[in-house]
Amino acid sequence: MTETEEREEIYLRDSHIINCSFDQWYPNFLQCTFPSRIIPLTENVLQWLESDGIVMDGVVSRQDEYDRFDAGEPEWSDDDQGENQAQSPAFPELDEEIEQVIVEFGGSVFPKLNWSSPKDATWMMTSGNLKCKKPEDIYLLLKSSDFISHDLYHAFEKCWPVSDKRKPTQVCLVLRKWYDNMKPSMEFRCFVKNQILFDEKEDIRGRIVQFFVDKVMDKFPDPDYVFDVYITKNKTVTLVDFNPFGEVTDGLMFEWSELHLWDANSDLLPDMRIVGSNAGIKPKSLENRVPFELIDLSEGSALSNLVEELKREGNLQNNTS
């Protein structure tokens, strides 16, 4: 096999990425996945997402302040109105659509764009998760997430041949119904190569394989892909998402080198791999979540020193006011 043939065998094509976009697969699988609504985003919303800085209700994000400090930029007052100053989101029509979906789904939703959720930005939420109860929650997560930036700028960068695309033709906000009782330990990632599902074990294997045969196989347009499922406490299998079969998707307990070498027609299929304890359920994205400045502050006595300094400043202001 030539180098070009090897690259074509392993690398993703534009169509593989597009087929895994939520708005592409959801209409064909809505009967076996979580209730969701798709809202196309307008150009003014995209421009705000792509702009620098985060302003919510007139408050600039802490990360934006860190960036200014690192760059050695001088502080400025609230009266300064530079043309590059970050703007608070003002999208009344989108607000209304989001609020309608939130009410429809019982008061809270899980947001994502075409491919990615802002799971690396959960540190911005007091709840520590992606549960959103109002439009401002969603805007804050989207604006703070590197994964969302990937959808907007880099979704096609791993494609071969090299793609001219930089972002989807239509960027969509996806709102999914939030469930408080979902357990990460009951979500499974399934790898399909040449329409053959990687082997699973015991009762879980049977349920996932049956779901694959009944609901997924021959219905997704690509022969190679990855799909995630969730098994509820009553043993019902529910589709979560589709992902491209390639390095842009987290292989979790599998290395992509072995997944690419897997012969779908072989009888020697890999075993199901399960994390043995709750301590092992740690997403690789954890390292993306918190700014380095906060990590630095959390080491040694730096954080306590910061708290004491803020207290002193507060007392000084109270004494002089």
From TrEMBL:
**Which family is annotated?**
Belongs to the CDC123 family.
Query: What domain of life does the native source organism fall in?
Result: Eukaryota
Q: Which InterPro entries match?
A: CDC123
What protein am I looking at? Cell division cycle protein 123 homolog
* Family annotation (Pfam families): D123 (PF07065)
GO CC terms of this entry: cytoplasm
Organism of provenance: Planoprotostelium fungivorum
Which residues does UniProt call coiled coil?
none
